[in-house]
Design goal:
44% of the residues lie in helices and 14% in strands. It has 269 residues and is of the alpha/beta class. The chain starts with 11 loop residues before the first strand and ends in a 9-residue tail after the last helix.
Length: 269
Amino acid sequence: MADDEINLQGAVAVVTGSTRGIGREAAWALGRRGARVVLVGRTSQDAPNPRLPGTLEGVASEMETEGIEVRTVQADLTDADATQRVVEHTLQFFGRCDVLVNNAGYTSNGPIMDIPWRRWQAAFRVQVVGPLQLCQGFVPGMLERGSGRVVNVSSGASESMSRNLALYSVSKQAMERWNEYMHLEVGGRGVSFNTLRVDRLVRTEGWQFVADTQGEDMATAGAGLSNFMTSEEAAAHIAWMVTQPASWSGNTVGFDDITALGGPPTPPR
């Protein structure tokens, strides 16, 4: 293993938005590669999502049956105190974080003049400020150890203009720019900062809910029902990004970009 590669065996990986979809499968992918995983999400047995399946306890139980060491933190990343609990509890559990996957997302589709400004605050809190807060909590330890990985999950909406998707598009674009600044100011010291731009439709539970309640055109941003990817396939790309040398940093890549670079390294299980 090269000096700037990461050994996931025994590493601690924090994955936000991990009760379903890409986050859930990313947690599985990292856990199967030997990482100890901290699942972060809003949905628990005591606070179930009335519309979508999946709970922290349910995902943790399934992973533990495969021998993966798992902890959970219930947290709504729109809240600063709850976000800070993710840092505090992770350090209490394991004393460190080696991999941070900022996957949690927030959207509120609709005409730009109709979406209350408070929802814009929430979107930036989840997709920019919250990830920054987590980095401020975890990255100093990564830098001290000389090893760490941060992967942010963005969207193809960041580079497109679609009616009724302004909030999601703008906040994801801000996430990508923030990642570039993380690399500019903190990169090059054994810690990488990269963004996966989900530029293909992924059939997650959240996507299916939007399609069922708001229609195919809204769910696909007018692209139609073609060229789908599974959550497992998307997660394999995240795992590939995590395992790249630390010198591979400051990138925003889509699925085809990763394929061109030779990944993902192994097919999803």
